[in-house]
Inverse folding.
């Protein structure tokens, strides 16, 4: 699971609403997966990132988008690495409100909940 | 009377007839053009005349379309050779000259549709065009410019007329992407499922969805990822979810005839890798599309999907501990019971609502709607105040059933009061 994905996921346990974001990430196995750098794509993603959630999940991340980031290759390469190349293979995502755990195995999160657990 | 826009002739493939016009319109809109028709209807015929603002837009169109075989800059046309020649004589010479000057090389091809001509007959037709101001040299192997005469002898192979209904003359510009259908054929794909989408249709869906480079495309019923492949081919980054743990992980029974279990190279990521598209793989998740796990926000440029509709794959959503009847499936890893019924109308309601919430403004939702033909009416097509219906194309499945490819565009921001 990429950190870009983590940034877009939320718990949908009944009653948590927007307090289900961001999920607390516990990674037990991480792999760095080289991905071809595409500055245009990374620049497009910057406005969509919830920065506080990214800072919680990642180690070395710029504190926020810098002025003129669209043309700053160093910044974009850093963001490319964090968002797209860090791959969580095993671990859990935890709902910050209810504590419910969603497992990640083989790089794939399992977000399934039963009827009782989810919103109406 | 001069026309500010140039006229082009599209030679269309005779497949997926209803899907062609929405594909061309979507692609023209994607490239900053607009569909401007130059004939009354674009029904069954493979010959379409339209006006396009520039040759660049025409070339961009051809880099994407799987419905059109070729495009020509139209110099003349008529219902008889005489009408064609007179039409050619009216075409402005200054527009012809750049392609006919003495330093250039060219060749003329004769295409006939629904009829075969002898070599002698073809040569006669080329000779009849001598009045055109060709100054360059003929080069049959690698000419700089190719001109084509296209003769339309109708669509009925059992009733071939003596004379063509229409004759067109144009400068060949580019061919479409129909070879993708063969190169991405499901027959050669590493990882398939019982309902993997025909390659041609998956590209048509990506085109109806106006997918472009650097988009994020999402398929909430991803299965083996066939629809994602088409979007990735066009440069989009892709997400998929599916309720079936085994399919997402690439485990379990194979769909191929002589194969029992899926191998290690069979999963969605491997499918993208097969075509050199792995860099566009973002993630896939095990998730119930009726209970999405995405946070609030608009970050999908397109949602392109083939929902399960109980005809070939059973429709499921996660259920309740209370309602486990005998013989119900359980998801192996998560021990969450899975119920076997999910009312179709609920599923589409959820899908449209999800699209309205998470698509960017101008983003598109493209999905298949199953139909029981004897009872179908247009009112049955799901609607949503934030989404405008762009097209509705039927594909017959059997005598009483068909499915319709619905394309919708988000035209209004989502607010909670919008839920119908």
């Amino acid at each position: 699971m990429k950190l870009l994905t983590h940034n877009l996921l939320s718990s949908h346990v009944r009653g948590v609403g927007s307090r289900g974001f961001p999920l607390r990430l516990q990674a037990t196995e991480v792999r760095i997966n080289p991905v071809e750098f595409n500055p245009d794509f990374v620049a497009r993603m910057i406005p969509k990132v919830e920065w506080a959630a990214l800072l919680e999940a990642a180690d070395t991340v710029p504190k926020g988008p810098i002025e003129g980031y669209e043309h700053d290759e160093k910044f974009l390469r850093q963001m490319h690495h964090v968002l797209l190349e860090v791959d969580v293979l095993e671990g859990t995502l935890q709902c910050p409100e209810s504590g419910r755990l969603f497992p990640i195995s083989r790089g794939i999160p399992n977000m399934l909940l039963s009827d009782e657990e989810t919103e109406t | 009377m001069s026309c500010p826009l140039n006229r082009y002739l599209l030679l269309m493939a005779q497949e997926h007839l209803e899907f062609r016009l929405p594909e061309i319109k979507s692609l023209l809109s994607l490239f900053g053009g607009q569909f401007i028709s130059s004939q009354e209807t674009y029904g069954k015929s493979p010959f379409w005349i339209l006006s396009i603002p520039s040759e660049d837009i025409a070339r961009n169109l051809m880099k994407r379309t799987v419905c059109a075989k070729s495009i020509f800059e139209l110099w003349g046309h008529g219902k008889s050779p005489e009408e064609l020649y007179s039409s050619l004589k009216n075409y402005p010479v200054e527009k012809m000259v750049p392609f006919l000057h003495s330093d250039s090389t060219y060749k003329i091809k004769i295409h006939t549709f629904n009829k075969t001509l002898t070599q002698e007959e073809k040569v006669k037709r080329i000779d009849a065009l001598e009045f055109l101001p060709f100054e360059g040299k003929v080069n049959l192997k690698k000419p700089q410019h190719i001109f084509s005469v296209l003769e339309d002898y109708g669509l009925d192979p059992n009733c071939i007329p003596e004379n063509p209904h229409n004759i067109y003359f144009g400068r060949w510009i580019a061919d479409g992407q129909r070879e993708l259908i063969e190169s991405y054929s499901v027959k050669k794909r590493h990882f398939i499922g019982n309902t993997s989408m025909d390659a041609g249709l998956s590209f048509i869906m990506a085109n109806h969805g106006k997918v472009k480079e650097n988009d994020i495309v999402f398929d909430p019923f991803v299965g083996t990822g066939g629809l994602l492949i088409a979007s990735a081919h066009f440069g989009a980054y892709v997400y998929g979810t599916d309720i079936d743990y085994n399919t997402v992980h690439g485990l379990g029974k194979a769909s191929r005839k002589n194969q029992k279990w899926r191998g290690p190279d069979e999963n969605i990521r491997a499918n993208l890798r097969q075509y050199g598209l792995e860099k566009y793989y973002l993630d896939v998740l095990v998730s119930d599309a009726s209970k999405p796990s995405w946070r609030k926000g608009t970050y999908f440029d397109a949602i392109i999907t083939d929902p399960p509709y109980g005809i070939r794959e059973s429709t499921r959503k996660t259920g309740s501990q209370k309602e486990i009847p005998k013989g119900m499936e359980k998801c192996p890893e998560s021990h969450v019971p899975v119920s076997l019924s999910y009312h179709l109308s609920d599923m589409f309601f959820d899908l449209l609502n999800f699209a309205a919430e998470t698509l960017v403004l101008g983003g598109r939702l493209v999905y298949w709607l199953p139909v029981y033909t004897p009872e179908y009416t247009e009112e049955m097509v799901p609607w949503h105040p934030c989404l405008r219906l762009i097209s509705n194309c039927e594909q017959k499945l059997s005598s009483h059933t068909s499915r319709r490819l619905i394309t919708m565009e988000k035209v209004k921001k989502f607010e909670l009061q919008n839920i119908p």
Observations:
- Strands of chain A lie at 24-32, 86-94, 101-105, 108-109.
- The mean pLDDT of chain A is 93.
- Residues 102 and 112 of chain A are 8 Å apart (CA to CA).
- Chain A touches chain B through 36 residues (CB under 8 Å).
